[in-house]
Amino acid sequence: MEIIKADHLSKLFGPVKAVDDVSISVKEGEIFGFLGPNGAGKTTTIRMLTGVLTPDSGSAQICGIDIHTNPLEAKMNMGVIPENGTVYSDLTAEQNILWTAKFYGMDSISRKERADELLRHLGLTERRNDIVRTFSKGMRQRVSIACAIIHSPPVLFLDEPTGGLDVYSRRLVIDTVRIMNGKGSTVLITTHNIEEANELCTTISIINKGSIIATGSPEKLKKTFDTAKYVEIAFEQPVKKELFVHEGISRVETHGDKMRLYTDDPDKAVKYLAALAEQQQVKILSIATSNPTLEEAFVQLTAGA
Ligand SMILES: Nc1ncnc2c1ncn2[C@@H]1O[C@H](COP(=O)(O)OP(=O)(O)OP(=O)(O)O)[C@@H](O)[C@H]1O
Ligand SMILES: [Mg+2]
């Protein structure tokens, strides 16, 4: 079943087409990654999906409920970590969490139980009675997460939840997303961190200048760029570049003490290089093959577009 559905969403800000005919479909249980450079339209899309912003055209449904005609009901199904956190600076960590739980209609016993559990899980127990104004960015983000998941929502929207966080807080955020997903939440997450998207997401959409330019599993997106495969080799003595002219090798680059040979068929290239070393009587110091990274796919897709 489609849990998050956007149909032809568009939003103009003056002359800027922030979002231009974006359609998204996220199935139950997925972790969907929204990737794009600064200003691509990620936040604007999330704001329309979560009912903060009215689209100029198009519609969106959360768990089959239209966010614009039925906003309250739709919002009950979602937890949101917006780009700029919405925690209240004048309340304590615990008050923020309890207040949010109350908003979602949780009874007082489960509010307290769940708040205790989340404060512990997010490493905030000792600071639970301190006002959020005195918190660091990472701690504030953890309060924001607690507020987003207190009611165990079927849908989670996270707008760059790991931006500017240290390794520990980042791990905590990622682990929490995984745990929530394991418990059945469908997740839409935006990030600049391509490795993070690669490791976390089942499907990724790349957005650039308001439009989605590619969608697929991380592996599928990488495969679109098969020609970026290469073999990197270091010889003990220099080997003439001319010797690398071979049907399987499309381009040769020097990288420090290594040669990088681009090829469609790394297996064939490696065999050729081994034979070449034998024939030239030079020793191979190291050899490695590299598959295209998601980052390369991303850069190629968004460069100059
Ligand atoms: N409230 C607004 N008023 C005017 N222009 C806006 C507003 N919000 C967004 N924009 C413009 O819309 C475009 C998309 O912005 P958006 O915040 O959605 O990008 P983003 O992909 O989230 O970028 P980032 O990675 O920097 O967070 C930008 O050109 C931005 O300047
Ligand atoms: Mg943004």
CATH class of the largest domain: Alpha Beta
CATH superfamily of the largest domain: P-loop containing nucleotide triphosphate hydrolases
Q: Would you tell me which CATH topology of the largest domain applies?
A: Rossmann fold
Shape: elongated
Task: Give a description of the structure.
The chain has helices spanning 42-49, 71-76, 93-103, 108-121, 137-149, 167-182, 194-200, 218-223, 266-280, 294-302, and strands at residues 2-13, 16-27, 31-35, 57-62, 65-66, 78-81, 155-159, 186-191, 203-208, 211-216, 230-235, 249-255, 258-263, 284-290. With 305 residues, it is an alpha/beta fold. The protein has two domains: 2-223, P-loop containing nucleotide triphosphate hydrolases (Rossmann fold, 3-Layer(aba) Sandwich); 226-292, YebC, transcriptional regulation domain (Alpha-Beta Plaits, 2-Layer Sandwich), CATH 3.30.70.980. A six-stranded mixed sheet has the order 6-7-8-3-9-10, sandwiched between helices. β4 (57-62) and β5 form a beta hairpin. α3 (93-103) packs across α4 and α3 packs parallel to α5 (137-149). The radius of gyration is 24 Å and the shape is elongated. The relative contact order is 0.13. Adenosine-5'-triphosphate is lined by residues 13, 16, 18, 36, 38-44, 83.
